[in-house]
Amino acid sequence: MRLSVNMLSLLPEERIIIDSNSWENIGTPYDLRCTPQGKELEVKYHNGDYLYLRFLELASADQATRRYSSDVFNSHLDINYPITVVEINMSIGGTSINLTLSETTFGGNTIKGGLMSHCGFGIVLSNTGLDWLQNPKWKLQSKVEHVEGTNIVKVKFGR
Which residues contact 93 (CB under 8 A, 6 or more apart)? Predict the structure, then answer.
């Protein structure tokens, strides 16, 4: 399973980017926690931007039903257990955009009780009136220097 996330923010500051399970451009969170095995990641920023994700294995439809308080797993007989799932919780500070285990809210909309399987999945938020300002290119470009005549890229980490 490969996970990619481009964390949104209303601030023109760096936010974490996860590309096929690899972290980039973390920015300056006030708290970052990751288990040694990399199965959990939690990143908190001062303005309320927040990301928590967890990979775990579910052995059966019954276990999934108990964990998520939903019988949607029992109606999908094509799922071969055990399965690996990723649980994502994310909030965008200053907005009503929240993803939790039980529901996703954005604007006046709520999505809950669903199961996404064997597909690419994404939500496109357009015409919201919000200006996404995260990861300004000038900041990212100022941290990366290509060494001429080589295949070396120098990256300045930190602030």
Answer: 9, 10, 11, 45, 47, 48, 49, 50
Question: pLDDT in tens for each of the 159 residues of the chain?
Answer: 677 888 889 999 889 888 887 877 788 899 999 988 889 999 999 999 999 999 999 999 999 989 888 888 887 778 889 998 888 899 999 998 998 888 888 878 888 877 776 666 666 777 778 888 887 764 555 566 667 777 666 666 554
Q: Name the amino acid, one letter, at 46.
A: H
Q: Tell whether the torsion through CA atoms of 141, 146, 148 and 149 is positive or negative.
A: negative
With b for 16 or more beta-carbon neighbours within 10 A and e for fewer, the 51-85 pattern comes to bbbebeebeebeebeeebebeebeeeeebeeebeb
Which of 54, 41, 57, 60 lies closest to 101 in space, CA to CA?
A: 54
Residue matched to tokens 């990641």: 41
Q: Find, among 20, 26, 22, 44, the residue nearest to 134 by Cα.
A: 26
Phi, psi of 73 (to 5 degrees): -70, -30
Radius of gyration in angstroms for the set of CA atoms belonging to the chain, rounded to a whole number: 18
